[in-house]
Amino acid sequence: RNGLIGEYTASERAGAFWGIRTTYADYPAATVPVDPGWSDTLKVISTRLWPMPDQRRRQLVNWGYCLADAALRSYVASDIQPEPTLPYADASLDAPPGADGKPWWKLW
Questions:
Q1: What is the C-alpha to C-alpha distance for residues 20 and 102, in angstroms, rounded to an integer?
Q2: How far, in Å, CA of 32 to CA of 30, rounded?
């Protein structure tokens, strides 16, 4: 591997990488409850935050927060305090996609 990820893997540089297409469960220190279905669901939505319903926008923000938190706790500092809380508590990702009554294919 070349570049930044290769340097992380080879322990030449400390850091973490996460992106919208990352599978949350791949991080050993993923601590926020996230249903596995969200990894496949949210990674395919366009990240333009308009004209998306507010609830989906909040879920997408929470998704990014969960990924960043899990990546940093897994590869940079496992002792980060305090325990994470979602920016939008009303848009948790612990239930499967579609549990809010909207089919997964109608995310926007």
A1: 21
A2: 6
Pick left, alpha or beta for residue 101 (phi over 0 → left; psi -120 to 50 → alpha; otherwise beta): left
From residue 12, give the alpha-carbon distance in Å to each of 4, 18, 33, 36: 9, 18, 32, 31
The answer to whether 86 and 32 are in contact (CB under 8 A) is yes
pLDDT tens, 17-52? 888 778 888 899 888 889 988 888 877 777 665 677
The tens digit of pLDDT for each residue in 37-94 reads 888 887 777 766 567 778 888 888 998 899 999 999 998 887 888 878 899 999 989 8
Task: Give how far the C-alpha of residue 26 lies from the chain's centroid of Cα atoms, to the nearest Å.
Answer: 11
From residue 46, alpha-carbon distances to 36, 51, 108 in Å are 19, 11, 9
As given in the structure block, the two tokens for residue 80 are 């980060």
